[in-house]
Design goal:
The chain is an alpha+beta fold and 804 residues long. It is built from 14 helices and 40 strands. It is globular, with a radius of gyration of 29 Å.
Length: 804
């Protein structure tokens, strides 16, 4: 009888370099992901040290993983905050500032967190409750998920007394996209209610029940076909109204709850920074917008009681979801994140709800349980942002890091999850737009807020708060601490200038370059001589004047301590020339790149000259930018390296395309491995990479593979193969088979066909020592990409690599 086997064709395309391949028949177990998103949840939680809060379920969940004690949202507004989570992008990078901001109108091709998991990991993605903001003219983002959204209410009443005659209330209209042009003519609903009803009388109870059902169905799919899941469950409370069953109100004696300690705006703070009234005025018995009366102490205490009761209510619903995860035996292979979209003012500074740049509106809980990574009951002082969750989850799941097309502003927190003392950033960044845009830097001790308008010549106001000496933000310390202000202004200047509500990036003469050059298209520079010129007025001695390209290929003209530099990057290596003297405050420059020489001229005088690294061989992925390098760094500096001053008359002139000289001669050097000549296709696995890395269940794919060399732009599989190459040797070695270096505009493809006997295990491919960029195809379908430095990688499971 013929054995039952499945046949696979494995194809690998490398840009310029090479790897060792092998197939694992051992069980591959991609992690599931459960996101628990909670509206308006500040760290008024037991595990965060709030002795008044009754949150046993969140506390128990915190004991399973890591608690981030210094976590911050990126904008204290529901919709923008959720965009930052799902995009990994600051609102100042996208222009998505408003409750009604529509994602696909601003960034049509954005790849959200769930889309990334579906694309690169084959995940089924689902959403329930409040995930993206729906309301205020916004319909969320249905494209992000594999199945239709399970929609529930945010504004909800059970007690008939809470709505005047059962009429549509202002906030109900906002959140259901009804009568948006006549909100103030509608009646107000109650700010709180406490009927004696079951949990499922409210949306959060129903979301918890449905989430458990979705987990049960996901478990069945996982067991039957191996499909991993990403489920986002969004809960509405403690968002207003504080509608929660009576039993959660009864947990508290309101006389013991904390009242606000300081109810004035900070002394010396800009008028633009403060807040009075707002959202809370849309609920009775709070005085209406037209009423000058203040909230009295009795009402303050009831509102605070309502917030704590609502937090306990949502805690119970989260407990049901975690219990369901446990009962389904999904705990050990599911990453769980609990995240509050922003904080909440409870009368501190005289402010209620959110919509400020102050501490209470922006500090949030982030709790992460990652089996096998996080230590139970751990905590960290690492500053963290909402944008960090996207890249963190991608790394935890073994997926490629997100690359956009939206800017990715987050950093992975995985090093911190492994070691609470590790540090991946030294500050958090957030923003809030009013008639000026307030951008903030929060360090462990300080917060600097810059309030600047769109007019580059307009006034800029600053706030500085010292949480070591003044934790209640009683006064603005900016005038008293000018050195701290200047230090934090430099940190803020490293961020790209913000995108305005009109979708255009703001140019600010004080904190960035003022650009007066008409917008120019990114030129084609591959294999062309270049002449870059412009006019500059300097207000700082560091920053990018003009750049094109990024971490692999490109160029940049920039200032280093007042001296003009010209960097050219080819194949990740940077060649720099630098003027000996500082440039004047105003100057014209010309930077020239030829195949043989780099040259810099200032005011028609040559100030630097050096040997060229060669022409830039391929068109860089990153476009032209002026006044900063707003993607990856084209030069030898950290992007965006924002310039302070004025840049005008930028022009890039390209010469004739030069033919590339091919490396056609065999590589002449000897092998550096002393045992290399003894290695054959039959014994390669025992000799390389290391004998101790042998695995009983790994099938060895080292040996002879078909190979072909094509232009780097080619995306289709070669139809003709040049010969055979011996894996695991580098392509230019005598044993390798190609026997020459590849040029920067070439790619190496190599192919092998193999058979695997079907089993209950999942097939996993592992590549050991991948030096550079590669993509792996199985049966003609891409299953993963990698950008190295000589590190192993395993492409995530996909339907292209089925069981067996």
């Amino acid at each position: 009888m013929m054995p039952n086997v499945r046949r696979f064709s494995l194809l690998i395309c490398f840009a310029a370099l090479f790897a060792v391949g092998r197939v694992a028949s051992a069980d591959s177990n991609p992690m599931n992901v459960l996101l628990i998103l909670v509206d308006d949840l500040k760290p008024a939680i037991g595990c965060y040290g709030d002795q008044h809060a009754k949150t046993p379920n969140i506390d128990a969940f915190a004991a399973r993983g890591m608690r981030f004690d210094r976590a911050y949202c990126n904008q204290a507004v529901c919709a923008p905050s959720r965009f930052t989570l799902m995009l990994g992008s600051h609102s100042t990078s996208t222009g998505l500032y408003g409750l009604g901001s529509k994602l696909r109108e601003s960034i049509p091709d954005a790849v959200t967190l769930p889309q990334h998991f579906a694309k690169h990991g084959g995940y089924r993605t689902e959403s329930l409750g409040k995930v993206f903001h729906i309301g205020h003219g916004n319909e969320g983002d249905p494209e992000s998920f594999s199945v239709p959204h399970f929609k529930e209410k945010v504004i909800e009443y059970v007690d008939p007394e809470s709505t005047p005659g059962g009429k549509l209330t202002r906030e109900e209209a906002f959140f259901t996209n009804q009568q948006l042009g006549a909100i103030n003519s509608l009646p107000r609903g109650a700010a709180y209610e406490s009927p004696d009803v079951a949990d499922e009388s409210y949306a959060d109870g129903r979301v918890a029940r449905e989430t458990v059902e979705r987990l049960r169905a996901a478990k069945k799919r996982r067991d039957s076909d191996g499909t991993p899941f990403l489920i986002a469950a969004g809960f509405a409370r403690p968002h207003l109204p504080f509608s929660a069953p009576k039993k959660y109100w009864d947990l508290y004696d309101p006389s013991t709850l904390p009242m606000p300690e300081f109810e004035e705006l900070p002394a010396g703070s800009p008028a633009v920074a403060g807040k009075r009234g707002g959202e809370i005025r849309n609920y009775f018995p709070v005085p209406d917008k037209s009423d000058s009366d203040q909230i009295d102490d009795d009402l303050k205490r009831t509102l605070i009681h309502g917030y704590y009761a609502s937090t306990s209510f949502v805690d119970a619903q989260i407990g049901k979801v975690i219990a369901g995860l446990d009962e389904l035996a999904l705990t050990d292979n599911t990453i769980v994140v609990l995240w509050g979209d922003h904080g909440f003012h409870l009368g501190d500074l005289g402010i209620w709800t959110k919509h400020t740049n102050y501490e209470q509106a922006n500090r949030i809980p982030i709790l992460i349980s990652a089996p096998g990574v996080t230590k139970p009951g751990s905590s960290t002082q690492q500053l963290a942002e909402s944008v960090d969750i996207y890249p963190t989850l991608a790394e935890l799941a073994g997926l490629p890091m997100p690359t956009g097309p939206q800017p990715i502003d987050g950093v992975s927190l995985v090093p911190v999850l492994k070691n609470p003392d590790a540090r991946v950033r030294d500050h958090a960044y957030h923003a809030y737009p009013k008639n000026k845009l307030g951008r903030a830097i929060r360090t462990e001790r300080y917060r600097l807020v810059e309030w600047a308008g769109d007019d580059p010549e307009g006034s800029i106001e600053y706030e500085l708060y010292d949480y070591e000496t003044d934790p209640l933000e009683t006064r603005n310390h900016a005038d008293a601490e000018p050195k701290i202000v200047e230090q934090l202004k430099k940190t803020l200047a490293n961020y790209p200038q913000p995108i305005g509500r009109n979708g255009k990036r703001r140019a600010n003469a004080i904190s960035s370059a003022k650009i007066e050059t008409p917008e120019i298209e990114t030129p084609e520079i591959a294999n062309r001589p270049l002449t870059i010129s412009g006019r500059v007025r300097v207000q700082s001695d560091t920053g990018v004047i003009v750049a094109q390209g990024g971490k692999e290929h490109g160029y940049a003209v920039h200032l280093i301590e007042g001296r003009l530099a010209f960097d050219v990057r080819v194949n990740q290596n940077v060649r720099r020339i630098l003027s000996e003297e500082k440039v004047p405050q105003r100057f014209d420059f010309v930077a020239t790149l030829t195949a043989d020489q780099l040259q810099l001229d200032v005011d028609k005088k040559t100030v630097a000259r050096g040997q060229s690294v060669g022409l830039i061989p391929v068109q860089p992925a990153d476009g032209l930018s002026v006044g900063q390098d707003d993607r990856t760094a084209a030069g030898d500096y950290e992007a965006p390296n924002t310039f302070v001053g004025t840049v005008t008359n930028i022009e890039v002139i390209t010469g004739k395309v030069m033919p590339l000289a091919k490396n056609t001669k065999p590589f002449q050097s000897e092998l550096i491995t002393p045992w290399g000549e003894k290695v054959t296709a039959e014994n390669a696995w025992t000799q390389y990479p290391r004998p101790q890395m042998r695995r009983e269940q790994w099938a060895n794919l080292n040996g002879h593979w078909d190979y072909a060399v094509t232009p780097i732009q080619q995306v289709d599989m070669p139809t003709q193969w040049t010969g055979q190459i011996l894996v695991p040797f580098c392509l230019e070695s005598k044993l390798g088979g190609v026997q020459r270096l590849l040029d920067a505009d070439e790619a190496l493809w190599y192919r092998r066909t193999f058979s695997v006997t079907p089993s209950d295990h999942r097939m996993s491919l592992n590549f050991e020592a991948v030096d550079y960029r590669c993509e792996v195809f199985v049966n003609g379908k891409s299953v993963g990409e990698h950008v190295g430095g000589n590190t192993p990688f395993t492409p995530p499971y996909s339907p292209s690599a089925p069981l067996g």
